[in-house]
Amino acid sequence: MINDGFINNFLSNHFLDHLDTFEFLGQIGIERKFPKNTIITKINEKIQGIYLLTEGVTRSVIIGEDGNEKTIFYNTAPCFFNEGPYFSSFPSEMEIHAQTDCTVRVITWLDINNACDDNIEIEKELIRYFAQKSYLLLNQITDLLLLTPRQKTLKAILTLAKDENISFPGKEGRVLNFSQNDLAKICGLHRVTVSSIISELKESHIVSRTAKGKIILVKNFEEEIKKIW
Question: Is the pTM of this model over 0.70?
């Protein structure tokens, strides 16, 4: 899985640094709402605009030849997605799922052109935003190609633990609202491999225990991960 926590934090800060511009974009286009666990856009779908996620978390999924899903990216509001297939006019190669209840605005070229007629800064910030996103993704993909299965799992754990939408503090430590099977899909690994790694992490005092589809980390899990990275 791409280290989307780092990317989302960086791009969210970009939103905050240019809040007037992006608040304006949040008023154009068509607003659509998607309940949790519904599909926002499908593979091979002709995308009708760039999607501005104003509320919620989405999950970008690819489907393997065996029919199994692999999660490669999470988007946390506020952010854009689907800009690649829309601007290129190529069909989407991913499905976008609503991980939580989501609100998006679908913004077309016409919407953007009309907006830029009134404010050229919008065009500049959009280009800068998408250029930064592409650069960050390329760096993350390169990083993932060099990681071992254990490092991929540790990196996913760190990313998920920092996202307040999918993890929360518990009595023992940080609780990830994810099963080992979910973690395997995120990392692109076999469930048995992740299960073995989780067992190792219990011995290394990073994972406290697993229970009811959740992974419970010890309170100082970040320090312990640094010791075995």
Answer: no
